[in-house]
Amino acid sequence: MAEVTRCRICQSPDLYTFLRLGPTPLANSFVRPGDEAKSEPSYPLDVCLCKNCSLVQLGYVVPPEIMFRNYIYFSSTSDTIRKHFSEEAQEVLESYAKPGELVVEIASNDGVLLKNFLGKGVRILGVEPATNIARVANDAGVETLNDFFSSKSAAEIRSEKGAASVILANNVFAHVPDLHDIVKGMGALLDSNGVIMIEFPYLADLYLKREFDTIYHEHLSYFSLKPVIHLFKSFGMEVFDAKRTPVHGGSIRIYVQKSGGRHKRNSKGLEALLKMEDEMGLYSPAAYDKFAAEVLALKKELLALLMKLKAEGKSIAAYGAPAKGNTLLNFFGIGRDVLDFAVDKSQYKQNLLTPGMHIPVYGPEMLKEKKPDYLLILAWNFADEIMRQQEGYKKAGGHFIIPIPQPRII
Ligand SMILES: [Zn+2]
What we know:
Elements: E1 2-3, E2 15-20, E3 24-25, E4 42-43, E5 46-50, E6 56-58, E7 60-61, H1 64-67, H2 79-95, E8 102-106, E9 123-127, H3 131-139, E10 144-145, H4 151-161, E11 164-170, H5 179-189, E12 190-201, H6 203-208, E13 221-222, H7 225-233, E14 237-245, E15 251-258, H8 267-280, H9 285-311, E16 316-319, H10 323-332, E17 342-343, E18 361-362, H11 366-370, E19 374-377, H12 383-389, H13 391-395, E20 399-402, E21 408-409
Parallel strand pairs: 8-9, 8-11, 9-10, 11-12, 16-17, 16-19, 17-18, 19-20
Antiparallel strand pairs: 1-7, 2-5, 3-4, 5-6, 6-13, 12-15, 14-15, 20-21
Helix pairs in contact: 4-5
Bound molecules: zinc ion.
Zinc ion (ZN) binds next to loops.
């Protein structure tokens, strides 16, 4: 456990802590039934703004070997993500990768994105640190190196496979403790005309939609565009385009090339985003104080709603046991006195208890058996998909509660 004393991007010690979510267990450390009484390690969950480069980051870092020991998120479980990735692959094939060229994906998971390139003439390589997940990818025919992506593994890949025309990284940048090393590695692996596409949850969305629950120990950084431009510039690269995407509550995809590369810079689009960030106040502490106050107000409002329903004798369960759900449950103190159980499609979470609050997790079929009156959607980023899939629950008289940006019943 290390306290962060300098900014991960610019090394400035001028960090402003604006939100303290308190000691919190790791969001993916589910507990075996029977182990509830055993002590559960918890770690501070504080968030700060670098007053120099505007990177928002956690105030404490849990060592990755503790955090990723039991990594259980398999991205293929979501239809929304599968579709998003198939569209991304199409864009890469149309615009950036020619037959025979190398496409590398960092933190490639079970190959959910790279599968879309099979049989399309390009060479692919995944890099995935979780051994069990890398094995699933390799078994599915997606060649995957079981390692962390770093300047060291990048050099090894380059000497074995040559330079990469495209490097993809989705939902990993926020998890990286050493941003300088990963960016250096990307630069070393990238072909002189190559493109890096990186997608991460966008701070502007987190801020506007009060997505405070996306703050958990695995997410070390919360990016606006400005500090990222600065980061790549300091390694001889330039962000030449950026697009907002709807996944994970609002993300942004940046396009990077070596400085002076052949891809045209979308100056207008980039400047519009920077202007928006500035006007929102994302570069100044005052906006974050306002955000913290809004989170506390949200807590009060959601708890009042749940208590009212309980007082009326209603039963409530949760849909989804995502990492973000555990931030919300732990910070709001929502336990088994409120939620009877949670359901999640991931079999890796079923029959376990959520970290901290110890809500039992079952498969979605439990909804038919128990018929709770209300379903708190903790996986709100998939709310539309969930409500579509659970149309029968709604028709039978059930109600959904979406907790953010403002609690509402559907
Ligand atoms: Zn900084």
